[in-house]
Known about the structure:
The chain has seven helices and 21 strands. The chain has helices at 21-38, 60-73, 94-106, 134-147, 170-173, 179-182, 288-291; strands spanning 3-10, 47-51, 79-83, 112-116, 119-123, 155-163, 174-175, 188-193, 205-207, 211-214, 242-249, 254-260, 265-266, 271-273, 304-307, 313-318, 329-336, 341-349, 360-366, 371-380, 390-396. The strands form four sheets. Strands 1, 2, 3, 11, 12, 13 and 14 form a seven-stranded mixed β-sheet that branches. Strands 4, 5, 6, 7, 8, 9 and 10 form a seven-stranded mixed β-sheet that branches. Helix 1 packs parallel to helix 2 and helix 2 (60-73) packs parallel to helix 3. 45% of the residues are buried.
Amino acid sequence: xxxxxxxxxxxxxxxxxxxxxxxxxxxxxxxxxxxxxxxxxxxxxxxxxxxxxxxxxxxxxxxxxxxxxxxxxxxxxxxxxxxxxxxxxxxxxxxxxxxxxxxxxxxxxxxxxxxxxxxxxxxxxxxxxxxxxxxxxxxxxxxxxxxxxxxxxxxxxxxxxxxxxxxxxxxxxxxxxxxxxxxxxxxxxxxxxxxxxxxxxxxxxxxxxxxxxxxxxxxxxxxxxxxxxxxxxxxxxxxxxxxxxxxxxxxxxxxxxxxxxxxxxxxxxxxxxxxxxxxxxxxxxxxxxxxxxxxxxxxxxxxxxxxxxxxxxxxxxxxxxxxxxxxxxxxxxxxxxxxxxxxxxxxxxxxxxxxxxxxxxxxxxxxxxxxxxxxxxxxxxxxxxxxxxxxxxxxxxxxx
Length: 400
């Protein structure tokens, strides 16, 4: 099998008026992506799709910065395709002004159907934030009908917001208007953003009636869970920039490769869609919740409790293992052995979204009254399974 098409799917660049962070990351990402592509038997990058929120408020100077940056580092042979979404509509003149400004500056339609190397790219700008209403739904149906004539090639669809109930991030950040339309086309591979969710999270690809894939962000990450000690935006959220490099092959298969711009490496979580048109072949389904193995700590792993000069306690431990994936999070329970009561219970991320995960995790316990305590920590997979716990009994006294 040979690669016959390569493109980048990205979203949520969030170019700002007063920040160079995102443009620098984009330039770095493109340089790294071209270096990779040029080293392959099929060289180069055929297209890049900017899937909404490329300009943080949709202002003229922000869109101009995007255009100038892209012109500087995207080669002429790489076709660029843009959609607009909620952040482009934040300018004072709203959605209509943003669309008009985009068309004048970029010379592109907000909704497009492009054919690149024989593959169909259907991209839709959302309405009223992240919705797709009747007229655009009808347009999508017609474009899919035309694209399906090239069966069995996959059809690439792009809209900013996730499809509800598909990829990680779609519960809080999803919309469901076009799901019934896409269901008739199992060969669709739908790319979406909006959530800033990590694309190396194995839940960022989902298959049921068709394939859905998240596209990350170049700005910062956000998690779609509300039980984390640090909330949905962890402390290291700014050290995050990801996009997908996608390769179609002459046997009909598609390889999606999550790429980390900060480190310049692939995460090793490539997704092979062997037969895009055949749901019976899908492997990235919800069955993973029933078949996933449990993570495990190494035999020599142990909890260590420390305290500082202010009397603040913390428990630390080495990262557990979950092959071939990473560990999602850790759950801590702290029990007072004087009465058996749980006095502290929390969940923290493993920082799995960083290419170089920290080797150890530290969970703060705060100040503790004198007494005897039992701390237990379990490692959690992305699929609801948990490891055997690490346990430690320790004393807190007036001399600590």
